[in-house]
Write a structure and sequence with these properties.
4 strands; two-stranded parallel sheet; 100 residues; alpha+beta
Length: 100
Amino acid sequence: RCTYARIIADCREHSIVPVWVDLPMPGQFEIPGAPQAAREIAKKAGFKILDLTGWANGYELVEGKADDHHANALGHKRIADRLMEELRLQPSLLQESKVP
């Protein structure tokens, strides 16, 4: 909470829109705590939320060992496409912050 609060303060000081992107990687399950809890903390701190969950839609779009997952080339394209989709739905995220 303290870290997120500091990030929000820095963003506001520099007229930056703070955005928290939820981008779960398939096969990556060793996250401490529930992912939804982190999203809620970020939202309460003042981040705008971009939800990219489901970006893989069941496809094998990651590579690596069991403890090292990274998107492959097609995965990166799907992530970029989903990011653009979300930004089109929330164009205010691309504008300068008006919060002092």
